[in-house]
Each structure stands twice: as structure tokens, then as C-alpha cells.
Specification:
Layout lengths: L10 H4 E7 L9 E5 L7 E3 L5 E5 L9 E10 L11 E2 L3 E2 L6 E2 L10 E10 L11 E5 L11 E4 L9 E11 L6 E4 L3 H4 L4 E2 L18 E9 L2 E8 L16 E9 L3 E11 L1 E6 L2 E2 L15 E8 L7 E10 L1 H4 L7 H4 L5 E10 L4 E5 L5 E3 L4 E5 L3 E5 L18 E6 L6 E4 L5 E8 L2 E6 L2 E20 L4 E7 L1 E2 L5 E2 L9 E5 L4 E5 L6 E9 L12 E8 L5 E5 L2 H17 E2 L1 E2 L12 H14 L3 H14 L25 H13 L2 H20 L1 E2 L2 E2 L22 H22 L3 H22 L12 H9 L8 H14 L11 H10 L3 H8 L7 H6 L12 E2 L3 E2 L16 H9 L1 E3 L8 E4 L9 E7 L4 E9 L2 E8 L4 E5 L6 E4 L2 E8 L1
Parallel strand pairs: 3-10, 21-29, 27-36, 48-52
Antiparallel strand pairs: 1-54, 2-4, 4-8, 5-6, 5-7, 5-9, 9-10, 11-28, 12-13, 12-14, 12-15, 15-16, 17-22, 17-25, 18-21, 18-23, 19-20, 19-22, 23-24, 25-28, 26-27, 30-39, 31-32, 32-37, 32-38, 32-39, 33-36, 33-38, 34-35, 40-49, 41-42, 43-44, 45-46, 47-48, 49-50, 50-51, 51-54, 52-53
Helix pairs in contact: 6-8, 6-17, 7-8, 7-9, 8-9, 9-10, 10-11, 12-13, 12-14, 14-15
InterPro entries: 6-hairpin_glycosidase_sf, 6hp_glycosidase-like_sf, Alpha_rhamnosid, Bac_rhamnosid6H, Bac_rhamnosid_C, Bac_rhamnosid_N, Ig-like_fold, Rhamnosid_concanavalin
GO molecular function: alpha-L-rhamnosidase activity
Pfam family, one: Bac_rhamnosid_C
Length: 972
């Protein structure tokens, strides 16, 4: 591996600084005003004392800010000038982010505007920025007049069951045909409507004694055709085993007698909703309000619906689905599901031209039905849609809802708290077209979108009245071109569409989502009319903008970056999930904590993590333990490497954003978790056990890997304590900083003594992960580090120079080898082609990150279907190394949020160029390099009001840069 050995020759000999350039001078005016975690003009904001941020213009003369002034005013309906709510006055400060509002707390519904100006490093005063706005949501329970409403099961009509066909028979010995005996049984079953309870009656002698026979029943329940097989002497139960609820349709009408100046809809649900007003969809969000700990907190969204309300008669309606609240989740019992019914909460506030306000709320005046076209909708189940059950213009005024049922209403109460949603909602973010359509079997049409993804398909298909179209999904194909779905486990994960008429049908599921690359259509009488345009894939995820990019001269490294980004898109659907397709899709804390640093390089996920950490705090027990998944499911608590997310995540968010608020909000919870380690330790070695180094390859034990559980617990104990030391220092808590600093030193001594006591390590420490944790988390005494480094190198050689790490060890392997001075090994691992490696999955055709290093291979086929996701972001943690070292864009924890950052690219390996761009809170930062004609050429872009230090190989030469675009050329 070739490096540019700059540390042995003086900088002036090697470095030709080609100068600094900036854009053409702009008007001296701040721009890109945001509030909180980068919200732009929010409607329904959550924080009554927000923080303000802005960016300085890219100008050749503007290097830094020296002072600012902020004015906050009420937003006037008449747009007349009003007195300020708060005027900061001129504040001497170079800070242009996270400026705390110090005026009176905002109240619910309040609308304000704010603007800012700054003084630069030459004491020039800027123009005022354009005005930004904030509109508050409903901040407290007292702001709600609405009640929870749900379908009143007591008023529900009896189910209608129609027996369409019944056959009783057996299989002929030596053959595969069924000998059907139906003469007598058909006379016993009356066609048409029958009671729900079907009691078998004895009809005479057995026409085929001695043989095992089966009763096949084809029937219609509430308009949905189904088939069921019943063993001899079994009871016929027309209800399917699925627990997915039908959609609940809810509506009411209201009068608007005067001109409406403003209309706001405040909405929430225990479940998921879609609203309509006068037949028009409200908003573009999906699966709202999202997933929280529903017993404690549920979120609300605010919609500006002024243009949807008419003078005179109006109607408001909602489609309510089970979502996360009432739907099947892994380990959730059927008996628990039976107790859960989706509930809706809504408050429509109309402000008239004369200043009066009218409020329409969910209460017992609403009507509801579960007899609409969405017959079932759940995340694991999928969706069943019967177009023949269409309700017509059910969300418009004048609709006849006499056959609908009353709703059951419940007072809001104090729990759960209803609070404004503090991150953007889920939306369709991208649309993909099919790249190929195949027909692997007669009547089955498979569409390949070329990319594993998460979302919902939109189908436009030729249908025949009464036919049921089956829409199935898969991440992979069998060798014969049919779908491979074994890795979905028990998740049905499909959609059905029953055609109401012959013609062209358009359908898109709305109460479920799917993880897939392939879509299969079957059941179409006119399937030959399908084309690749018959299905499009709508990609969904939380609505965050792209924030960074990484490119290089190596195609497979670029594909790895693409796989990482797609893995993030797919699993950032309101919460950070482990996988998006099988019967899981949960907020596993271990996956989240290893991937978080990488996530900040790809998308603006500040609000995403801040909101999820609120859920982590909600779920923390009084003793300080954190569950394995958040929101929690019955998996347990306090796994090292998983529960530690409450410590590692706030710190990593702080480093990448500079937001001290994230540390303040989580500081006590961080301490509570570390206290668990302290209580559960003997001689500073905790006895906590958990998931281990999950899915380590070539393990000698089980999926939890070969590294001792007590070692992993001690390593994370030490890491957490070190982070608490740094967090306490950042918050000015000197007492805690001193205590945790000493505790880390004590843990280091205990760790070295216990796991690396002599020439041979502890049996459970003779792994790559054990050494990586000890060295990477500074838990090896200085005089013992060379010995542990030697053990790590031997393990690497013994593994045929491959990694042997799982979820916890993998994020460390390249950075630790690099920091130890073995950057050639780091690059060797990154560019390795054979199993286990990052490129191995790419060589097998991967378009996202996989759960296992060998989830599939051309030679051996599919991996263990019980734990085999093809869209799992954990191993994408290598992205941090790609941005920070391959391209060289590295944050400085001492000046967080890229107020100052380092540029230290790792030039070498098979690369001839690499480049990273990142939109920081100050502006765009760039680190790019390329080899050209024997020279290393570098480009560094430093945003306004920041500085960067270019660090050359070995760290012995550096140069600090002010804002601007800088070009360098270095001798090879």
C-alpha cells in the first residue's frame, strides 16, 4: 500500500497551496433559518422555548461572525407591524447555531416570525434575513376538547357467512387426486346466509371408511372470499388466523356559516390514520402519527386545511388502521391483540374573519363502519382491498351513513400525553420504475425494480370483475425466477385486490408497508396485457433531506455507499428498525447505536434521533435499565452493547451537531444506566449478559459470538463512563467529570487485569472483537497495549487476514487498525472480496446491507431463513470510516457540530480519488483528493464561520484554514 509520507519532510517542500477561492460576493444577509433540530417554518412545533440557527452567506470577504441580533414578533393576520416579543439586542458571539430563545414561553397555537442579522469579522453589519415562521401545536392535554373515539363493537352487526362450496374427501392411495365425496354434505349446507356458527351433522355412513379425509370449505365472510381446510371431526371456523383489523372509516358533517380565515386540524391516533375533508386527502404523510410508547406518549400532527373547508356544509372523515398500536408485533400475544382497538383523536379549529373560533372534535357524534374496501391492514399481514365494498363519496357532505354505527367515546385523560410530533412524518420520497418483468410460471408476473427498498407499490392493471389479484413481495428470487420469501418468516406481507368491475384498476396499499425488490402479480385473467409500467415502487421513509455524499474511483466502494444509504432509507421509517420486511421491524437498540455516526453523514437525522431518544428515556425503568427494543417488546432489558445506546447516542449526536440540549435532555438517563453497571459489578467486572457480538462469522458457540459476555459488558461499561466524563465536561459539571474520569481509569486497570493478564489472554478474550474493544475504548494499560496489538495481529493472520466480527466488533475493526498505524490492513479489510467482507455481498448482487456476512452466495444459495434479512443496516457502520478517513472529513469533538473539523484523508490502496461532501449547520464542508500525474491534489471547502485543520500523514504536519475553498497540490 502506497502512502504519501509527508511526516518526514518539511511542509513547504511538499505542499503547493494553490490558494483560496470563494463564490462571487453575495448580499450580506443570513439565510437558511431553522428552529430546533433543523425545522424550517414548522407548523405544529413542539418546543415553547426553541433554539435558533442560521447560516452566513458564502462570500469571499465573510470568514466568521462576531455578533448577532434576533427579533421575534407575533405573526399578525393583517401583516401589520407589531411590537417584538423578544429582541436579543446585539450579542457579541461567534455562535450562529443553537441560540436559545430567552423571551416568554410560546403557547399552544401561537404563530410568530423571527429574523436575524449578524456582524462579520470586519465588523460589517449585515442586512436582516428574510422572516422565518413558527406555529406551535397543541402543547398540553388542556388544549384538547376532543375525545378518543373507536368503533363501538357492541353495535356491530352480525357477520354474514355464505358457504359457496364444501367438499369432503380423501386422497387415493398411490395417486395425487382427491376423491371427493360431496353427495350428502352438500344437502346439509344451505347456500346463502347462515349463522356464524356452523355445526357439523351426521349424514349417514362413511363412503370411504378407513381413510383420512378432509373437509374443504370455500366461503364468503362479509364480502371476502376465503378457503379453509378442516381435518376430520374438526370444527369449521370461518375466521382466518390473521389478527389484522379491517380499516375503520369514521366521519361527521359540520356547518361553516361564515368565511373561514384559517383552519387547523390537530390529529392523533392509537393506530394510524388518513384524513379527508370534503373528499380531499389531508396532507401527504403516511402511517401517522407514528410509533411511540403508547402508554406514556402519543404524538399529534398539525395540518393547515384552510383551503379544504367550504362555506356551508362540510364533511370530515378518517380511515383508521391498526398500525403499531393494535397490530401484530413479534412476541405480542393474540390475547393481547384482542384487547386492542384503534382509536382516533381529532380537533378541527376554524377561525372566521370576524375573529370567532369554532371547534369540531371527535366525540360520540361521529359515525363509523368497518365494512369499507380495506378488509384487513397490518404491517406483517399486508393489506386486503375489495373494490366492490367501496363506500363512494363517504367523506363528502350529504353522504347517507344511516347504515353506519355509532362510535364509542372516551375522555382524553392524562395518559397517554398527547404531544406535537418532533420529527417529520413518513412520506413517499422516491419512485422507482421496474427494470424488468418476467413470467417464471404461468399466470405469475414478477417485476424487478433493481433495488431492494421499502415502501408500497402502485399498480395499474387490467382486471376482470370479481377476480382476486394477489400482490406478493420478495427481496430475492429462487433460481427458477420465483419469489424467495422464507426469510419473511411468519409475515404474510402481501396485498390482495378484489376487482369490482372489468377494466383498468389503480391501487396502492395505504395501511401497510413492505420491504422488497421484487413484486409478483397473479390471479389476473388478462395478465398478458401487463407491462413493466404496470407497477411502480413508491419508496417511503421519514421525510429527512439528503445531507452528504461519498464518491470514489472504485465502483464497488461506491456501490457499498449506495447500499448503506438504501439500508438507512429502508430502516428509518419513524423509528430506527433492524429490518423492514419480516415479522420484526423493531427498534433494536444495538443496531441503532453502532450505525448512528454513519447515519449523520447521509441524511439530516438530528430530529429523528432526538425524538427516538425521548422514547428510550420513556422506556427506561426506574432502576435504569433499557429494553432491547424501543418502543419495547417482550425481549428483555439491559443487554451490553444494546442498552448503551442511551449513553453513546446522545454523545454522537452532540459531536455531529453541537446540540448541547441533547446532552442535557439525556444526561440523567445516561447516569442511571451506568449506575446499573456499577451495581451489577464485582471488582468493576459487570455480570450482565445479552446478545454478545451478534452474528460473528465462524463462531464456535452460537449467534452471540465467541467474545466473553463479561468482557463485552466491561468494555461498554468503560466506554460509557468515558463518554459520561466527556459529557459532564461539555456541560460544565466538573464534579461528575472528575468522578467518571477516575472511574474509567479504574475500569481500564480491571479490564486489563481480568482479560489480558499475561502472555495469553482470557479464553473469552482471544477474539478480534475483544482486542478491538480493549484498544478502541482505551481499556488497555499503556504498557500492555503492544502485547494486545500483537494478539490482534495474530488473530488477523489466523483468520486468513479476514474479519471475524459481528455487530459490535465490526464498527471498530477498520478505525482501530488505522489508529494503530496499520492503515494498510484497514484498507485490505475494506476492499476484501471474499467472505466475510463488505464486497462479498456486493459480488452476490446486494443493493442494500445484509444482516449476515453470508446471507446468500451464488455457490451455496440462501442462508439461515430464521435470521436472514437482506436489508439490515448494522454492518453499514463502515460508512463512518469511509467519510472520516477514506475521504477525510472528520468532526472535532472539542468543537462539535463542525465548528472546527479535521481533514485527514487516507490516501492509498486501490483508490485514485475520494470525495465527501457534508451539509453542516454552518454550510457545505468538502474533503476531496485525487492522484494525478504523480501528485496528490486536494480540495477542501470550509463553511463560513468555521475553521478546518488539514492533517497530513502521521499528524506531524498540519495547516488550519478559514472559510473558503482551498486547493492543494502535493508531491508524491
Amino acid at each position: 500500500m502506497h502512502h504519501f509520507n509527508l511526516n518526514r519532510i518539511s511542509l513547504p517542500v511538499l505542499l503547493l497551496w494553490l490558494g483560496t477561492t470563494c463564490a462571487v460576493a453575495n448580499e450580506l444577509r443570513p439565510h437558511s433559518l431553522t428552529v430546533g433540530e433543523n425545522f424550517v417554518d414548522p407548523v405544529g412545533y413542539y418546543d415553547s422555548t426553541p433554539v435558533f440557527s442560521w447560516k452566513l452567506p458564502v462570500d469571499e470577504d465573510v470568514k466568521a461572525q462576531t455578533a448577532y441580533r434576533i427579533i421575534v414578533q407575533p405573526k399578525s393576520v393583517s401583516d401589520e407591524n407589531t411590537d417584538p416579543i423578544w429582541d436579543s439586542g446585539k450579542v457579541e458571539s461567534d455562535q450562529s447555531v443553537w441560540i436559545l430563545y430567552e423571551g416568554p414561553s410560546f403557547h399552544s397555537r401561537q404563530q410568530i416570525t423571527w429574523r436575524v442579522k449578524f456582524w462579520d469579522d470586519q465588523n460589517r453589519e449585515s442586512e436582516w434575513s428574510d422572516e422565518a415562521t413558527i406555529e406551535m401545536g397543541l402543547l398540553g392535554q388542556d388544549d384538547w376538547n376532543a375525545q378518543w373515539i373507536e368503533l363501538d363493537r357492541g353495535s356491530r352487526k352480525p357477520d354474514e357467512v355464505k358457504i359457496l362450496k364444501a367438499e369432503f374427501g380423501n386422497r387415493i392411495a398411490g395417486g395425487d387426486k382427491v376423491r371427493v365425496v360431496t353427495e350428502n354434505i352438500r344437502r346439509a349446507i344451505q347456500r346463502g346466509s347462515t349463522p356464524i356458527r356452523v355445526v357439523p351433522a351426521r349424514l349417514g355412513g362413511d363412503p370411504a371408511p378407513g381413510d383420512d379425509k378432509t373437509l374443504w370449505v370455500e366461503y364468503d365472510i362479509n364480502g371476502v372470499r376465503k378457503q379453509k381446510e378442516v381435518a376430520e371431526n374438526g370444527a369449521f371456523d370461518p375466521y382466518p388466523k390473521t389478527t389484522a383489523h379491517p380499516a375503520y372509516y369514521m366521519r361527521r358533517e359540520f356547518e361553516s356559516p361564515k368565511k373561514v380565515m384559517q383552519a387547523r386540524l390537530y390529529a392523533s391516533a392509537l393506530g394510524i390514520y388518513e384524513f379527508q375533508i370534503n373528499g380531499v386527502r389531508v396532507g401527504n404523510d403516511m402511517l401517522s402519527p407514528g410509533y411511540t410508547m403508547y402508554s406514556k406518549r402519543v404524538e399529534s400532527l398539525t395540518y393547515d386545511v384552510t383551503d379544504l373547508v367550504h362555506d356551508g356544509n362540510n364533511a370530515i372523515g378518517a380511515v383508521l388502521g391498526e398500525g403499531w398500536y393494535a397490530g401484530k408485533l413479534l412476541l405480542r400475544k393474540r390475547s393481547d391483540l384482542a384487547k386492542l382497538t384503534p382509536k382516533l383523536l381529532a380537533q378541527l379549529e376554524l377561525t372566521y374573519a370576524d375573529g370567532s373560533v369554532e371547534t369540531i372534535v371527535t366525540d360520540d357524534s361521529w359515525r363509523a363502519t368497518d365494512q369499507g374496501p380495506i378488509r384487513a391492514g397490518g404491517f406483517y399481514h399486508g393489506e386486503d382491498y375489495d373494490a366492490s365494498k367501496s363506500l363512494g363519496k363517504w367523506a363528502e357532505a350529504g353522504y347517507d351513513d344511516a347504515d353506519w354505527m355509532p362510535v364509542k367515546s372516551t375522555e382524553l385523560g392524562n395518559k397517554p400525553s398527547v404531544v406535537p410530533k418532533r420529527l417529520p412524518p413518513i412520506q413517499v420520497m422516491k419512485t422507482l420504475n421496474a427494470v424488468e418483468m418476467t413470467q417464471p410460471e404461468p399466470g405469475k408476473y414478477v417485476f424487478d425494480f433493481g433495488q431492494n427498498q421499502v415502501g408500497v407499490p402502485a399498480v395499474t392493471i387490467p382486471v376482470t370483475k370479481g377476480e382476486t389479484v394477489l400482490i406478493r413481495f420478495a427481496e430475492m428470487l429462487q433460481q427458477d425466477g420465483t419469489l424467495y420469501t422464507a426469510n419473511y418468516r411468519s409475515a404474510r406481507s402481501q396485498a390482495t385486490y378484489v376487482a369490482a368491475e372489468t377494466g383498468t384498476a389503480t391501487y396502492q396499499p395505504s395501511l401497510s408497508f413492505f420491504g422488497y425488490r421484487y413484486v409478483e402479480l397473479s390471479g389476473l385473467a388478462r395478465g398478458e396485457e401487463l407491462t413493466t409500467e404496470s407497477v411502480v415502487a413508491n419508496v417511503i421513509h421519514t421525510d429527512f433531506p439528503s445531507k452528504g455524499s461519498f464518491t470514489s474511483s472504485h465502483d464497488k466502494l461506491n456501490q457499498l455507499q449506495s447500499n448503506i444509504r438504501w439500508g438507512q432509507r429502508s430502516n428509518f421509517v419513524d423509528i430506527p428498525t433492524d429490518c423492514p420486511q419480516r415479522d420484526e421491524r423493531l427498534g433494536w437498540t444495538g443496531d441503532a447505536q453502532v450505525f448512528l455516526p454513519t447515519s449523520f453523514f447521509n441524511f439530516d437525522v438530528h430530529s429523528f434521533w432526538a425524538r427516538w431518544l425521548q422514547s428510550v428515556r420513556d422506556e427506561q425503568t426506574s432502576e435504569g435499565e433499557i429494553p432491547h427494543t424501543v418502543p419495547s417488546t417482550p425481549f428483555g432489558y439491559a443487554s451490553p452493547g444494546w442498552a448503551d445506546v442511551i449513553v453513546t447516542a446522545p454523545w454522537q449526536v452532540y459531536v455531529r451537531t453541537g446540540d448541547e440540549g441533547i446532552l442535557r435532555d439525556n444526561y440523567e438517563a445516561m447516569k442511571k444506566w451506568v449506575a446499573v453497571y456499577e451495581r451489577r459489578s464485582k471488582d468493576l467486572i459487570p455480570d450482565l449478559k445479552g446478545w454478545g457480538d451478534w452474528l460473528q462469522p465462524y463462531t464456535k458457540t452460537d449467534r452471540k459470538g465467541d467474545t466473553a459476555q463479561e468482557l463485552i459488558a466491561t468494555a461498554y461499561f468503560g466506554r460509557d463512563v468515558r463518554i459520561l466524563h466527556l459529557a459532564a465536561s461539555a456541560l460544565g459539571n466538573d464534579g461528575d467529570a472528575k468522578r467518571y474520569g477516575q472511574l474509567h481509569a479504574d475500569i481500564r486497570t480491571a479490564f486489563t487485569k481480568r482479560f489480558f493478564p499475561g502472555e495469553k489472554p482470557h479464553p473469552g478474550a482471544n477474539t478480534q472483537t475483544a482486542c478491538l474493544m480493549g484498544l478502541g475504548y482505551d481499556l488497555i494499560e499503556p504498557d500492555q497495549r503492544p502485547r494486545v496489538e500483537a494478539i490482534l495481529l495474530k488473530q488477523f493472520e489466523d483468520a486468513d487476514r479476514h474479519l471475524r466480527t459481528g455487530f459490535l466488533g465490526t464498527p471498530l475493526i477498520a478505525p482501530v487498525f488505522d489508529e494503530l498505524g496499520y492503515s494498510d490492513i484497514a484498507y485490505e479489510l475494506l476492499f476484501k472480496e471474499s467472505y466475510p467482507s463488505w464486497f462479498f455481498s456486493i459480488n452476490q448482487g446486494a443493493t442494500t446491507m445484509w444482516e449476515r456476512w453470508n446471507s446468500y452466495s451464488h455457490a451455496d444459495g440462501f442462508g439461515d431463513a430464521s435470521m436472514n434479512s437482506y436489508n439490515h443496516y448494522a454492518y453499514g457502520a463502515i460508512g463512518q470510516f469511509m467519510y472520516e478517513r477514506v475521504a477525510g472529513l472528520t468532526p472535532d469533538p472539542n468543537h462539535p457540530g463542525y465548528k472546527h473539523f479535521f481533514v485527514r484523508p487516507l490516501v492509498g490502496g486501490p483508490l485514485t480519488s475520494a470525495r465527501a461532501e457534508l451539509e453542516t449547520n454552518y454550510g457545505t464542508a468538502v474533503s476531496g483528493w485525487q492522484l494525478r500525474k504523480g501528485r496528490l491534489e486536494m480540495e477542501v471547502v470550509v463553511p463560513p464561520n468555521t475553521t478546518a485543520t488539514v492533517v497530513f500523514r502521521g499528524g506531524k504536519e498540519s495547516q488550519t484554514l478559514a472559510a473558503g475553498t482551498h486547493q492543494f497540490s502535493l508531491n508524491r
